[in-house]
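Side project, low priority. Logging it here so it doesn't get lost.
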Amino acid sequence: MEIIFTEHAKERMKKRNITKEEIIETIKNPDKTKKIGGKYSSQKNIGRANIEVVYEKEKYIKIITSYFV
């Protein structure tokens, strides 16, 4: 499935030093996922920290934001 990143997500990734690979790994192999309304929230321990990725999933996955938890 295609993954696209919103401008907001790209800005937050750069600011927080989170890579695309970390985002993709979190979505594909999450430790925990929950659905809130029409959005999904996945968490994963990536070794150096726990991150959370918020995204929408329809015909493609649209990354909205990511942050450390």
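Brief comment: The longest strand covers residues 50-57.
Revisit when time allows.
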